[in-house]
Amino acid sequence: STVTSRYATTVITSRVANRMDESKEIEFHVRLPKNAFISKFRMFIDGQVYDGVVKAKEQAQQQYTEAVSRGESAGLVSSVGRTLEEFKTSVTVAAHKKVTFELTYEELMKRTHGKYELQIHARPMQPVRDFKVDVHIHEEAGISFIDVKGGLSTKALANAITKTHADKQAWVYFYPTVDQQKMCDSCGDQGMNGDLVIVYDVNRDNGLGHIKKSDGYFVHHFAPSDLPRIPKNVVFVIDQSGSMYGRKIEQTRIALVHILNDLAEDDHFGLITFDDRISYWKRELVQANRKNLESAKNFCTETLEGSASILILLTDGDPTSGVTNLENIQSNVRQAIAGKFPLYCLGFGFDVNFNFLEKMSLQNNGVARRIYEDSDADLQLKGFYEEVATPLLTDVTMIYVGGTNLTQTYFSHYYNGSEIVVAGEITDNNIETFTPQVVAISSNRRIIFSNPNETVESTGTVSDDRIQRVWAYLTVKQLLDKELQLSGPEKEKVKKEAMELSLKYSFVTPLTSMVVTKPPGENTDVLHKPKEGETSQRWPSPGGQPNLAHLTPASGYSGRWVLSGEQIKPIQQHSPVQLRRRLLTVQRCSVNEIKGV
């Protein structure tokens, strides 16, 4: 995997040789990050290249329907756990022939809690003879630290990791032996089953941030840190209707007690519970002093100037009494909030109506987050709260004189440990007239981030289109969010724009699908990226939720994973492969050297 300016491009290449005297079907599994877009899939069979083609979902559905009418099966993308999306396809390999799979996906890494995380999930099903992961990170701002965590970095497996850090670049190599693959917190006789997480951050100043441009496009990363925290006003709205009874409400109470302990004394807060009626702990926001906190904790068990207001709703999204029409609820909430503060919806449980909560959050400048009904649900709630616990700026407006086709430029809050990213085009590619500026509120004063002498760095490569792809990635993501909030002709217009961009940049999104091209006579597979909260099904019904680089080889063969960068020739690496009958042997392959950016 190559990460440049927080944009990760991962190429997974897998090669398998069938040494049997008869044809065998090979199944290829890959798990990728939830926020990633698959941008390329190809197979090399007997000297022929079979490229997947990204098409509008309706076109792909027609091709799928035709395949089904011929008695063929379809491809499958399914939800795997909280953050994984699994792509499967299969192909028949003739006797004594080889197949090479190559999958590329892209994602803009999100900064939370002061760091970026690149996560790789591996479950080989048995120790494999030749297993390798290579990661290269290049950041012009300089890399402040890099670490490797996760279950695959424990015990003996920690010795399989080599980490190198030199100012603007870092490399991580993970080359475990067969014996090492049995010795980690998530290892056993069947080999590895866990995550390798590369954690890093970049050097920062407290000014305008880091701006990079290439071929008429720019990307701006803004994350000042040396700012005073803003006292916050936070209201917790807790669903205690019948659908929340039992474990859900108990875990919510535990999490709230933890969160209340973390409030600063200059914060103000309130608690509201609701079922068919509303109960207030206090009618007004109160200061987070010891007396009020103790009173609030007991309640759990049975807008000020110069501050940042936040509304957090904890619910399973299942209205059972009172107003139950979802559109009416969304309309009422939007009118009541009236743009004054963001609404964060935390959806509880595996059956949560996430689409409803996500739309309501987006309509009110917030985000929705799924909370899984597991033993650590209280920690999930607390983890989300910590992301928004320390507001540093409010009413953040990103201004770009000489810029056009900009992604989102207004942000109601900027939180410590996060990052604001804006991309766009530079008008006429004239850097001389391009002037960036950030205007925001810090405590109760207006603050301007501007540096007339700021240099906008160039990638230095004329053909480098990564900055443009960052712009496309962000634009598509934000158009999909906007489409969710709209209806009628406006919705169709935004949907069309998102689909056209997805097709132009070959992104597999909820509006497009990849048709996996195979040799004549093979089944037709269709890759469909589902939306968050959809149930895993075969096409054309919605699939599961998107997500981390995961490969699942079957037992009995030598496997290698190499995650490498852009413009790499097919890396000969053995893939997650499952065989229906006897196992294939895999030809040992070499790894191409990763080139620096």
Explain how this protein is built.
- The structure is a single chain.
- With 597 residues, the chain is an alpha+beta fold.
- The protein has three domains: 2-202 and 502-579, no CATH class; 210-227 and 392-450; 232-389, Rossmann fold (3-Layer(aba) Sandwich).
- The chain contains eight helices and 38 strands.
- The strands form seven sheets. Strands 1, 2, 4, 5, 9, 11, 13, 14 and 37 form a nine-stranded mixed beta sheet that branches. Strands 3, 7, 8, 10, 12, 17, 36 and 38 form an eight-stranded mixed beta sheet that branches. Strands 20, 21, 22, 23, 24, 25 and 26 form a seven-stranded mixed beta sheet that branches.
- A hairpin with a 2-residue loop joins β13 (161-166) and β14.
- α2 packs parallel to α6 (377-387) and α5 (354-362) crosses α7.
- It is globular and about 80 Å long.
- The protein starts with a strand and ends in an 18-residue tail after the last strand.
- This is Inter-alpha-trypsin inhibitor heavy chain 3.
- Residues 518-548 are annotated as: Disordered.
Q: Give the count of helical stretches.
A: 8
Integer-rounded radius of gyration:
25 Å
Q: Can you give the helix content as a percent range?
A: 10-25%
Q: Summarize the main sheet.
A: 9 strands, mixed
Uncertain stretches:
535-597
Distance between the termini: 12 Å
Average pLDDT score:
80
Structural class: alpha+beta
DSSP strand content: 35-45%
How many DSSP-defined strands?
A: 38
Oligomer: single chain
Shape: globular
When the domains are counted, the total is 3
Protein name: Inter-alpha-trypsin inhibitor heavy chain 3
Organism: Oreochromis niloticus (Nile tilapia)
InterPro entries: ITIH, VIT, VWF_A, vWFA_dom_sf
Pfam families: VIT, VWA
